Amino acid sequence: MTGLLTVLCGTTLGAGILLAILAFTPSLVPRRKTAPGRRGRLAVQVVRWWRRALLAGVAAGLVWWATGWPVAGAAAAGAVLGLPVVLAAQRTRQTILVQEALAVWTRRVGDLLASGAGGLHHAVTRSADTAPEPLAAPVQRLAERLHTEPPEEALRGFAAELDDPVADEVVLALLLRLRAGGRGLVEILHGQAAALRARAAATREVEADRAKPRTTVRTLVAITTTMVTGLVGFARDYLAPFDTWTGQGVLLVVASIFAVSLWRMHRLAALPARPRYLAGGQPS
């Protein structure tokens, strides 16, 4: 049994290292530019998770080889895959950046319309040169679409690319102006810009409060990892009971409880997802 475990461990480690080398080696075939929008973001996520999965395989092989415990190898792989998601707040930070950028851009479009920029097409085109960084490329593509596509179709494409209910609110105001006409769009855009700034500020305050327990969890994970590594390296006799199948079962239960606790805390600290108003291209 020990020989079989050694072979499996070595095979896993070797395959993980080989796949990791292949993952980070540049391709000799020129890549096509990924289309913007949800499909482009999905492609980026696939590549990110593919590389993370390869690193998880390497970590599993190393930990299994160092400890001889298959459960420890599986736990290491799960940590590589899950900890960046559980302990990070990238989605919330991105939401805040988009809200602040939309506030600046919406205010800019409203000011251009108020100054007589010559209609929505000209206002959007002129705003593309000074759009905030998170919106620079999408606004530029919106300006290009407005010259080649019907205005409503171009605006819906802009909303689909951002894939955010906050952006849908701004697009809906512009769509209503296109359909119904009339005055009042400048005031609506200015009001939305002020509301977006207030929402972004409130989200920052909430995220600041949620960052404290998240930091505590990071510290707890670091202490636990350091303690287990020290025990494996310097007090292996103390961990001898885990060398049995019963010990592996106990280790599996402990690791599962730890993982479920971290995931539950992540769910409690995450912002709830809001439904989009223009999901599927139609108001919802």
UniProtKB/TrEMBL annotation:
PANTHER family referenced in this protein's UniProt entry, alphabetically: INTEGRAL MEMBRANE PROTEIN-RELATED, POSSIBLE CONSERVED ALANINE RICH MEMBRANE PROTEIN
Keywords: Membrane, Transmembrane, Transmembrane helix
Listed name of the protein: Flp pilus assembly protein TadB
Domain of life per record: Bacteria
Transmembrane regions listed in the UniProt entry: 12-29, 72-89, 220-239, 245-263
GO cellular component, one term: plasma membrane
